Records
---
Amino acid sequence: MPDSPEKPSPGNRLRAALGAESPLQVVGAINAYSALLAQRAGFRAIYLSGAGVANASFGLPDLGITTLNDVCEDVRRITAAVDLPLLVDADTGWGGAFMVARTIRELSRAGAAGCHLEDQVQAKRCGHRPNKQLVDTAEMCDRIKSAVDARRDESFVVMARTDAHASEGLESAIRRSQAYIAAGADMIFAEALGTLGEFQKFTAAIAPVPVLANITEFGKTPLFTLEELRSAGVRLALYPLGAFRMMSKAAEDFYGTLRSAGTQASLEPRMQTRNELYGVLDYHSYERQLDALNKPSTP
């Protein structure tokens, strides 16, 4: 029999998803089970947030406290559970040129489809918080060049995130992004823009390079619809932590109700059922295999 076609790489799957849907909805998944739920909902691409790793896996704020190894562990768990291409928040790359190169190799080895690097200083802040500080354009271009040179698979997406809008304005964010593209960035993450007009001007200035808009809740960017983003030329719409915020609020309600009422009975109708959980996990197929292994042999 002829050999079966080689499975597309994660990077190629992300690029194919971008071609199939515009804007491509990239939804955050803080762990493997969340990724399974996103896949069942029909999303074509998922995202691992640096804040998600810090908040959910370590109970820490998103202030550059977690490490490459911390992120790679969550990447491996997610990519083992689903085939959806995973875009990863790589913060500032965790160091200088050699460390940025290692970041790209380790994320690729863990199964990521791509990552974004940002132009903040190493002691970074959440992109929708005040007092962000940036490195100069040349230093960020060095990060991008190191990332591009380090990848073993040309399809691995190197995305450059600019936080310049908050402190330097839209024109500076555009100029920086043009330099980042010249340095080799495949896509641009335009952080914390405030209006559709700004997105339209931004996307036009760097076309045809795809631009990502971060549609995070409680942030600087309004919760634009897909049609609004499409009209502004945005190619990727990111929803990094919405599911995490929803499940965290539900957990707060559960803990508070159980503690005050002494029973969770009133909350049971709002819970995912045991059978629904088993459906996501394909539990019964595992159980059938276990039963077959334990079946007594006939004499």
---
Amino acid sequence: MRAAIYCRMSRDREGSGLGIARQLEDCEKLAAERGFEVVATFSDNDLSAYGNKYRPEYERMLAAIQRKDFDVIVAWHSDRITRHPSQLEQFITACELGGVMVHTVQAGQVDLDTPQGQMMARIAGAVARHEVDHARKRMKRAHEQAAMDGKWRARRRPFGYLQDGSALVETEADALRTAADDLLRGVSLRAIARDWNERGITTTGVAKGWNATGIRRLLSNPRYAGLQEYNGKVVGTGNWPTVIDVDTHHAVTGFLADPTRSNRASYERRYQGSGVYRCGVCGAPMTMMHGTPHESRPDKDGVVKKSSGLHYRCTKSTHLSRQGEAVDEVVTKAVLGWLSSAKALQKLSVETVDFPAEQRKRDGLQGKLKKYTLMFASDDISAEQFKDGTAEVRAQIAAIDAKLSQYRGSSPMLDLAMSRDDIQERWDQLTPDVRGSIINDLVIVTIRKGERGLRKFDPETVNIQFRISNSEES
């Protein structure tokens, strides 16, 4: 009789396929004992048969049954083939129409050609389903208890930690700390991802490199602040070493959740004025364009200036363009001149935030949320009382997070204002994207048409209006 062997492993933790190899060896031995000729082998590794998940080799085997490519299926156990009732019915029908028998190493022959055999298969399937359901509930309860106890939980090694969470991988942890600080200073997620890829910082998953989405997911993970998460909610603190402090975590998540900053976190401009400077003719944003480099005419002192050909042009029309470096120089001079003044520090200073006090307040509110949950579970309060109470507490937590995020997110401009003598050096160290964000927050730059054209730049065509209230600067 022609036989096909089917093997399946729900979870291959090592990724070595050893479980499949052992099943295959036992099935080949049974086939030899029964005198079967093995003509096909199908194996689905690291795939569960609990739900209706797609199993490519299983589907290929069903197609082969319909073609009547073999007479018998050999499996290690019937639950290797399926554990789902509806899928079992599909399999029984296919075997019945194809005239295929089933032999297993552990459960003997399953005769699907008779009502009694089909009944036994259904009973075995129901028992297997019950065992899986029971095991899943035990596992879910164990995970829940581990989360509440603050225990380390990770199937794969998370970036920044050893597999068991006992210690940090310092190079990865340092990269995470720097990335969090860079994000709060205005560096885009794309820039951070590109920097990591260029430095050879690899992921712990299957991806070939980092992207903005991966960096966002990483920086938003409460694990790195020592916070225990379960079912998408923080339920307490963990027993593992932290990479960043809780305040930084809340500042990062608040920054990424702020809709006014979400585009800034993902978009990265290559030139500080792209999308920031405005056309004085139509009001549209301007962008940097590449033109032909040229030299200016000698001035009265005989000095010839060389242009790179880069120029800002209106994004809606070609009616206005200006030399890129010259415009940036005028804007930078005005911005740094204002930031280095005593007036700037006075205008930009915010009330000092007591981070430890705010965190204690937040921890108390988290404890209050947990108390509401326990009271609701014990039927001490109604669903309406639970909803109203938790909504109020969550609003207070959101207010604290917003306060921390606003303070940390304002640091790049404050840092420049406090630099004074080193302000130009600090400015040059910032990426064009961060410089553009600071310019956009501080001033409105409008570029007007001039009488002398593009080749001879007129600084008077660059209008700078400060956004700071009560400012006399313009």
---
Amino acid sequence: MKILLITTGGTICSSSSADNGKNDINTEDVLPKLLDNVRQSLKSYKHIDFEIASPINTLSENMTVHLWNVLLDYLRSVDYDSFDGVIILHGTDTLHMTAPLLSILMRGISCPVILVSGNRVITDPESNAFDNLRDAVRMISKLSELSAGDEEQYANTEDIINVYSVYRNMDGVSYVHKASELEECGDYSEDFFSRGMVETEAWLESAISVDGVESVGNEALHEPADSNKQLKSPLLFNRFELMDNVLYIKPYVGINYDRYNLEGVSAVLHGLYHSSTANAGNDSGASSALHLLERCRSAGIPMYIFPCDENSYRYITTKALIEGGAIPITGGTWNRAYTQLLIKYAHIE
């Protein structure tokens, strides 16, 4: 079994400094220990051959659009037919953003892609890094067996959800997540959740519960994300450069939209409260999202609102935003909507 192991940094590739006890990247020292643990714990598996690549090396909180582009350039160079699977080691802080980005761009890659993180450095007895990496290898083995056993089912890889994350929560239960649905880790938490997540052991018995065809996005994001269904190759292989031109805004009491500079912005993604609402009072001045909407309209910048189903909202404030020209997005998570917009408004090379 041949696996491409891509390191990007993060806690899973870090160690605690003897000088100050703080964590920092130490991939060169940590990676051999991770791989040795996997080989020892999976002795019953057929030979596992890891090919290692480290296109970027950063704590995930320091991830930038530029570093994403470096990673994507490397991913475009890989011969995926040469591997049974790809494992990407990534930090937890921005895992929920890299995961949906890759789920969109790598859909249709000819082997499974699994993002793996660690909640603590590997010397911490509560670290889940070893378990997560081991489970990713087990997943690739299972999917390889299925692919070999049913070539017709896996012949049209464009229709297979093949980008996952596997992660053991602090209660000791490990889950398989569709990368496209991964939610942000909560405050004061080390747990990850997603819509449709399945316990890893149950997934390994069937390997179908979180697999299958999914809708890529709604009408607002049809180009280029939804056009993936018609592509003969994944979107990754389109030549483009992601830009930092999508402004994401979360509503809060006291917001003043005049504080936001729209220079260089190609699109605004405005989050909504859980009722699909935001301040749209006509007497709220610069605190009204209608004020921002007017600024966007004057600048020729589209403003998207999420989450919002234009066919089932309940409040007049939402009605005012839609009638004012805001573009509703529904389904998935905010980070998925954000990464879809990054792709939509990327610089085409």
---
Amino acid sequence: MIILFSSSLGLMVDNYKKRQIKYIDDLIYIGERISLMLSSTTPETEEIFHQLMNDERLRKFDFDLNVENIPLSTEDYNRIKDFFAALGRYDVDCQLRYINEFIGYYKMLKQQYQEYYASHHKLYIAFGVLSGMVISIFLI
């Protein structure tokens, strides 16, 4: 029972790391969609959010930006909040530059997370199983 519990903890950490990568991927997609909309039709901010909220790929994305639903650091949470708050405040050229910086940052962050995950994801599960075995041996 202890081994199963500790193994499930390893799987939870593994899934959390996958969720971080997926969340960053969604942020990049949002930035690219907004950039495309601003480059082609220059819609109002409300229309941008309406289209994003109705996008099938983003149906599980929390546009309310509740901190407990964002699997990233506080610094990244604030960066995301600032990004959404800045939409519609500047002229199109400034917004496009800001969006491109946002996309570039999260592409870099996604690459770092993917490299870290690729080199560590098996360790989470192995550590969970091994720690469960060690605890079980000590209890026997």
